[in-house]
Structure formats: C-alpha cells, structure tokens
Fold these 2 entries.
Entry 1:
Amino acid sequence: MAGDGRTSGGMTMPRGTENGRRLEITSDKDVVSARQVGRELAAGFGFSPGDQTVIAAAISEIARNILMYARRGELSFELVSEGPRRGMIIVARDDGPGIPDIARALMDGFSTSGGLGLGLPGARRLMDEFDIDSGIGSGTTITMLKLKRPVR
Ligand SMILES: Nc1ncnc2c1ncn2[C@@H]1O[C@H](COP(=O)(O)OP(=O)(O)OP(=O)(O)O)[C@@H](O)[C@H]1O
Ligand SMILES: [Mg+2]
C-alpha cells in the first residue's frame, strides 16, 4: 500500500459489474449526491444504519479531495459478495496531479491545502480495506471496501 507509491488496487473480494453505479464529481452538489447514492446502495444491501453513515462519511472525504485537488473525477460503487461475505467497493478516480508521497498523505494532520489533513486517514480507518494508487502525472485511484457485519 503506502510506500512505493504503486499498488495493485486488489481487494480481497471478487469484482464484478453487477449492481454498479458511476458518478462524475465536478461540483459540491456531486459530492452530496455521491454521499446519498452510497448511503442508499448500502441501505439496499442491508448495511446497518451506522455502517451506512460510515460509508457515506468515507465517500464524502474522497469526493471532496477529488474536487479540491483534481477538480474533477469519478466515483464508482460495486456491491460484491463471495460466499457469506458481502461488501461494498468504492473506487475514486481522477486525473489530477497525483500524490507524491502516499505514506505522508495518510498521516493524521498532513495537508497541502491548509486543511486538517484528516480526510484520507479518517476514510482509511472507517473502511475495512483501503488502497491508494497514485503517481505524479498519472492521477489518483483510491479503492476501498466495507464489509457487511454478519447477522448473528
Ligand atoms: N485526489 C487527490 N489528488 C491529489 N492529492 C490528493 C488527493 N487526495 C488527497 N491528496 C493529498 O493528500 C493530502 C491529505 O488529504 P486529506 O484528505 O487527508 O487532507 P486534506 O484534504 O488536506 O484536509 P481535510 O482534513 O479537510 O480532508 C492532501 O492535502 C493532498 O495533498
Ligand atoms: Mg481531504
């Protein structure tokens, strides 16, 4: 993950196109929509209200980053399952300037914009898996997975 700046983006769940949704992010309105769509998909897939909020919060942070650092990009959502495991994968892509030092960007308090520097590390903590693929001039792709807690 963090370190060499190049990663596979592989989550530990099979990827598919079923139940997918894609959203362009070019404005604050799109950030609000992305949050809502993420929450609705999560609700429809049976995530708890608490986890719906957690997913929406993570989406909000990475979508805000797209707007702020890359100006535009897209989010896609996938509902995935493997045996009894169910989850939601969110991929954020942009063709912005890229992140030169991913390990640093993931540290609490690191910001190049005078922000709090909590968006990326916060989103990572909220999700079960989190992967950043970014390089200078090649944009940024963030892939994150939230697993549904099994009902017992
Ligand atoms: N999509 C992106 N493209 C380029 N750089 C990014 C992107 N997302 C994050 N970064 C870089 O990573 C840093 C950390 O991001 P993070 O979201 O944690 O903090 P922040 O946006 O600066 O502040 P905030 O706490 O308000 O989110 C940013 O300051 C920026 O330098
Ligand atoms: Mg941020």
Note: Confidence is low (pLDDT under 50) at residues 1-8.
Entry 2:
Amino acid sequence: MTAEAYPVLEEPKTFFLAPLSKPAPGSAGKTGTWRTHKPVVNLEKCTGCLLCWLYCPENTVIKLENGKVAIDYEYCKGCGICATSCPFDAIEMVPEV
Ligand code: SF4
Ligand code: SF4
C-alpha cells in the first residue's frame, strides 16, 4: 500500500486545553455538606499559572478576569489536588468541620 492510500486527517482548526466536561447536578452533583476541607486561594501568592485549574478533576477552579483563580465551592469535592499541584503554595486546605 502506498502512502497516498492512507486517509489524511484534517488538522483541527482550534485546540482548547480544557477539561471535557463540567460538573452538573445529577452526575457527581453538588457536593453538599460532606466535604471536610475546602481549598482557599491566597491571591497574594497566586501567579495565575493555572496548574490548579488544569489538574482539578472536578473542573471547579474558576479562571478570573484578573488572571487569578477562584473555587466553585458548590461542586468542589475537597480532594486537595489543586493545593498539591500549586507550585507557589497559594492554596491552603482549610478544615470545614
Ligand atoms: S479540592 Fe479538588 S475538587 Fe476542589 S478545587 Fe481543588 S482539585 Fe478541584
Ligand atoms: S496553581 Fe497556584 S499559582 Fe497557579 S493559578 Fe493555581 S493557585 Fe494560582
């Protein structure tokens, strides 16, 4: 088979670096009251590198217009991955109970 026989895939016109889905009621759903710790962002330390946004498995890190981040506590599960992934120690996991 010659190289010409293989189908040529079209290049995607745009590429989005983003999680594929948003949490929604009925999937994992709103977190409710069972979370034991919540991430609190120190905006003085945050550089806007977005690693926490990239690694959050729930897609609950919100990009702000000022380039920094906030947390959607309605859906955040308190896993702490954002805090662990932050290279600037800008996220603290605070006990809620
Ligand atoms: S604690 Fe977990 S679910 Fe909540 S914002 Fe951080 S990574 Fe996302
Ligand atoms: S990983 Fe840390 S420094 Fe980077 S955007 Fe998140 S909180 Fe800010």
Note: The radius of gyration is 18 Å.
